[in-house]
What we know:
ten-stranded antiparallel β-sheet; single chain; Multidrug-efflux Transporter 1 Regulator Bmrr, Chain A
Amino acid sequence: xxxQQPYTVVRAFPGFDVRRYPDRVLVQVQVDGDFTRxxxxxxxxxxxxxDGNNRSAATIPMAPPVLQEQTGESxxxxxxxxxxxxxxxxxxxxxxETLRILVVPAHEAAVLRFGGGWSTKRFTDRxxxxxxxxxxxxxxxxxxxxxxxxDPPFRxxxxxxxxALVRVTSA
Length: 171
């Protein structure tokens, strides 16, 4: 595992920060299921890709976190950023056709850090809290809330590190 993806804190607010993330390349898969199961189901093909199931047979270190965004009633995008890469030409092509490689341009996101396990309610509540904080900070969401999970599933929930994120623009 490598260091987490870089960012710069643009501004700190009570309870959350606004961060600037540089361009990055994600490996991503769309899966169906409830919030908790979707994360596990989506991470497996990504882990296989990182372990060498790609046209180059290259192993790629994982850069936490695992990102999750709900898409519709039961759909979820599960993603991992590739460390140090923002050039698609240098990224190994997946053998698994359900995986997608994409460049995410630099952007700003509001981020609320929280601990604890991976319950759907905990994540949903933190996402709502983050959205509720944006108005007072004169920020507008620019997309849906998504979540970052930093810890493996075997880590005790009390020690967990998670984040709720949403891209933002100034009001």
